[in-house]
């Protein structure tokens, strides 16, 4: 795990600009603290700590499994522009009880409908037809991506304005500034920024649904496979509009560990590859071709198989997500779990990370264009390292998280010990009542403004 996220050497193009901006922050911070009146300071800190404590009760693996199970009971429906919500729900609910639903816009109006049981999806699909296309031939792949059409037998409603659309893109910086100016303190501003930029429950549900739809395609070759999201989608630091990273998990396929004792055993006849990498490339090549040829709504498919980590990249138009699919990327999943744990331990961690990332993007320290820039992941590790180094640390080290783990938590990946405690109630944090404002201005920016970027590295294993 050290090679993945334990250490981070910072030789980056944006480092020099980071230092200059950090050094300028001293005077700016003093001016802000002089003007600001923190009338709600004690209440804000108390609420922040309480929010972090309640969030710590969630288990990473249990939360992912719950999301995945919900996605398997869901369908994605393209709706006509003048659809009425009541009429829509009345029609869909004829096939089963609806547990949850929401509407959003992306190349049209879409609805995500979660049923109570999978049988409801079968009943719904039994009433679906393959569209007839003039002068073309349709690929008869029956996915859970459906289209609702008017048949002419019912009256078309013009009450589309009754629909409430969930947001799936971040607001512009100009609009963000207006929201921040309405807040009474810097602490409230940082919390407001997080609320406006973070992934919503609906957006996360849609991401898991896209993974589930893609799994339906891969299941033609690997019926027991799972396509899991990782990175920003599940690590609690995802921003609206971020890419959807996912990987094809084949580790759970049965038959890998067969019991012995009868003197006889059966084995599947399988193809052999020269290395795990070549097998991964072959699998992704086939899955990528299927996505390109049979996956409705999947466009711009690129098979980037010679990259350090082979992947298939494409755009999923119905959701609006840019997607990257890899295979058996267990290290990335474990990295996501670690960030999730740190984000749940103290609510101030997420507020600080979202603020630093926004600040860095506005000042051109980070960029959406690939290159020798400091990345959001590196900035997140910087925040974690800084919070571990406080006089009263907000966060434990990675070694401390490993030492608290149960035997069932043990995880060795490619020779690296990636063990992280799963029971967050076992983690005892030191008492720290610093405000977000003081941690951000007086702490982070000034601390790294004088950092010797070209000569040192950081690591979050121990301090």
From TrEMBL:
GO terms for biological process: RNA 3'-end processing. Residues 186-343 form the Poly(A) RNA polymerase mitochondrial-like central palm domain. GO terms for molecular function: poly(A) RNA polymerase activity. Pfam families: MTPAP-like_central, RL. The keyword Ubl conjugation does not apply. The chain crosses the membrane at residues 370-387, 436-460. Residues 59-128 form the RL domain. One of its GO terms (cellular component) is mitochondrion. Keywords: Membrane, Transmembrane, Transmembrane helix. SUPFAM superfamilies: Nucleotidyltransferase, PAP/OAS1 substrate-binding domain. It comes from the Eukaryota. This is Mitochondrial poly(A) polymerase.
């Amino acid at each position: 795990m050290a090679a993945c996220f334990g250490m981070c050497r910072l030789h980056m193009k944006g480092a020099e600009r980071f230092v200059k901006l950090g050094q300028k922050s001293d005077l700016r911070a003093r001016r802000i603290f002089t003007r600001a009146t923190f009338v709600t300071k004690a209440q804000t800190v108390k609420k922040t700590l309480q929010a972090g404590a309640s969030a710590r009760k969630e288990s990473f693996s249990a939360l992912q499994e719950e999301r995945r199970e919900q996605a398997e009971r869901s369908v994605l429906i393209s709706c006509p522009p003048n659809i009425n919500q009541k009429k829509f729900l009345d029609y869909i609910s004829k096939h089963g009880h609806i547990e949850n639903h929401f509407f959003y816009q992306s190349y049209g109006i879409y609805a995500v409908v979660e049923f109570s049981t999978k049988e409801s999806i079968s009943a719904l699909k039994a009433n679906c037809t393959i569209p007839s296309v003039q002068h073309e031939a349709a690929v008869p792949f029956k996915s859970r991506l459906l289209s609702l059409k008017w048949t002419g037998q019912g009256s078309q409603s013009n009450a589309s304005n009754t629909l409430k659309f969930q947001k799936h893109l971040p607001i512009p910086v100009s609009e963000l500034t207006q929201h921040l100016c309405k807040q009474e303190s810097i602490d409230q501003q940082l919390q407001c920024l997080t609320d406006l930029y973070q992934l919503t429950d609906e957006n996360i549900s849609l991401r898991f649904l896209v993974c589930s739809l893609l799994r339906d395609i891969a299941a033609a070759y690997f019926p027991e496979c799972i396509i899991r999201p990782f990175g920003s989608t599940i690590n609690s630091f995802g921003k609206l509009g971020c890419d959807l990273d996912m990987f094809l998990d084949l580790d759970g396929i049965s038959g890998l560990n067969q019991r012995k004792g009868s003197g006889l055993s059966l084995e599947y006849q399988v193809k052999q590859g020269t290395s795990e990498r070549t097998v991964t490339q072959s699998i992704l090549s086939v899955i990528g071709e299927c996505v390109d040829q049979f996956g409705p709504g999947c466009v711009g498919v690129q098979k980037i198989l010679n990259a350090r980590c082979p992947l298939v990249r494409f755009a999923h138009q119905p959701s609006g997500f840019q997607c990257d699919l890899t295979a058996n990327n267990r290290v990335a999943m474990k990295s996501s779990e670690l960030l999730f744990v740190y984000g749940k331990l103290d609510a101030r961690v997420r507020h600080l990370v979202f603020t630093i990332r926004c600040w860095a993007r506005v000042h051109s320290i980070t960029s959406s264009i690939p290159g020798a820039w400091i990345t959001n992941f590196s900035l997140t590790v910087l925040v974690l390292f800084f919070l571990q180094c406080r006089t009263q640390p907000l966060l434990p080290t990675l070694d401390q998280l490993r030492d608290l783990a149960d035997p069932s938590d043990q995880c060795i990946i490619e020779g690296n010990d990636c063990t992280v405690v799963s029971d967050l109630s076992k983690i005892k944090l030191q008492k720290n009542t610093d405000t977000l404002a003081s941690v951000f201005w007086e702490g982070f920016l000034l601390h790294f403004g004088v950092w010797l970027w070209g000569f040192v590295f950081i690591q979050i294993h121990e301090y």
